[in-house]
Amino acid sequence: MAKHSLDKDKIKILLLEGVHQSAVDVFERAGYTNIEYHKAALSEEALLTAIKDAHFVGIRSRTQLTEAVLSHAAKIVGIGCFCIGTNQVNLAAAEKLGVPVFNAPFSNTRSVAELVLGEIIMLLRGIPQRNAKAHRGGWLKSATGSFEARGKTLGVIGYGHIGTQLGILAETLGMRVMFFDIEDKLPLGNAQQVHSMEQLMSLADVVSLHVPETPQTKEMIAHAQLACMRKGSILINASRGTVVDIDALAAALKEEHLAGAAIDVFPVEPKSNTDEFVSPLRGLDNVILTPHIGGSTAEAQENIGIEVAGKLAKYSDNGSTMTAVNFPEVSLAVHSGASRLLHIHRNRPGILIQINLAFAEKGINIAAQYLQTTADIGYVVMDVDSDQADQALIELQAIEGTIRTRLLH
Ligand SMILES: NC(=O)c1ccc[n+]([C@@H]2O[C@H](COP(=O)([O-])OP(=O)(O)OC[C@H]3O[C@@H](n4cnc5c(N)ncnc54)[C@H](O)[C@@H]3O)[C@@H](O)[C@H]2O)c1
Ligand SMILES: O=C(O)[C@H](O)COP(=O)(O)O
To answer: What is a single molecular function from GO for this protein (predicted)?
Structure first.
């Protein structure tokens, strides 16, 4: 019988920001019952308390897992971002602690693409301002500033999962699709890659942003880039709030250089639904403001819950790290009839030799062994006879450069 480092009911899973019930169901089906569930993000102080004894933490885009927060998480084994973006986690700090971070890279792709497609039609028709006027008792029946999407040019910046989906959907409306990406990308449908962002912006009737938050994308759309956009064109941002200089955008809209915008993400977002939303874009009728709900559909949230909880449970049960965003990726078979040991260490030459020598000296037989590394850490997985597992764990813990070890269920 396999030995356990920790019984499943002792493994605390902390789920924040109202991740979907499907995640709880996956954990419970896998035998993990010690689940602390919060419908919203926690305050910084409450987070430090809750994370202290948590083995797994599940968050969405709001919770910031900084190096300081992670340093309070003495027992943390794995992190799940129940969304696409992982910029809210200090990935390098998690890696140094030997903690893999998982996300759901495509579960809400379609939801974002559909929202943006709808916004393109609404903005080209000038619906937001007509809607606002009607709510105030006005009547703006006019074809002025109202256009079909057919024949217009969509410029996609960041031609990844969402950008490509959006491109395909926009082509079905008869739009011409152009894109800018730092990588050479296979154009889907009739899309065309343009190698200068400013050139793309000068050609497009609608520009939609789908880049991740990185140091390079911080305020990549500022005064100069907005000035390249065609007069009367439209900007959509459902990527990250840091990508656009929001004051520059407000100015371009007020000067009527842009005809409208749809913004789902903001440099500063309210921490909860009861906090005030403050933005220079408030009060501009030609701007669709949405509260970071690009991926918030029933379908996406349910799928995300299943996917990310599944990855965390699999890592906990058998050590698999496939698709981890900051960690060596290892796909592992089940380890029935043996005990599995995980050894995470600082990546330096000779670790495997040290392990194998130590095991040989103690007569510990290794049934299977896997090693994968990144520049900074190494991840060794070994299956050994269950009656030798406790001794093997002691040997592993004594290896110089060890970050953490686990003996699996
Ligand atoms: N509003 C929401 O609710 C919501 C939902 C999902 C994702 N997002 C955001 O959208 C982003 C994109 O999602 P995705 O799934 O398409 O990601 P992705 O990784 O599949 O695609 C991102 C693309 O951007 C490109 N890129 C990176 N840096 C660039 C730069 N400086 N200039 C131009 N291109 C650059 C990459 O090469 C890649 O092709 C996510 O990182 C996330 O932050 C927001
Ligand atoms: O990165 C993402 O997937 C989106 O920004 C969605 O984040 P959310 O789960 O907080 O809605």
So the answer is: phosphoglycerate dehydrogenase activity
Q: Which atom of ligand 2 is nearest to the CA of 82?
A: 9
Q: What is the pTM of this model?
A: 0.93
| Ligand 2 binding pocket includes 85 (Cβ within 6 Å) | yes
Residue 251: Cβ-neighbour burial (10 angstroms; 0-12, 13-18, 19+): middle
Q: Give the amino acid at 111.
A: S
Task: Please check whether residue 383 is in contact with residue 367, taking contact to mean a CB–CB distance below 8 angstroms.
Answer: yes
Closest alpha carbon to 41 in 273, 310, 309: 273
Q: What percent of the chain has pLDDT over 90?
A: 95
Note the ipTM here.
0.99
Q: CA–CA separation, 275 vs 278, rounded Å? A: 9
- Cα–Cα dist 227/232, whole Å: 11
Closest ligand 1 atom, residue 210 Cα: 12
Which tokens hold the place of 291? 């509260």
Q: Per residue in 109-154, pLDDT tens? A: 999 999 999 999 999 999 999 999 999 999 999 999 999 999 999 9
> Ligand 2 centre and the CA of 60: distance in Å?
6
| Torsion angle defined by CA atoms of residues 57, 60, 63 and 69, in that order, rounded to the nearest 10 degrees | 30
Cβ 349 vs Cβ 342: under 8 Å: no
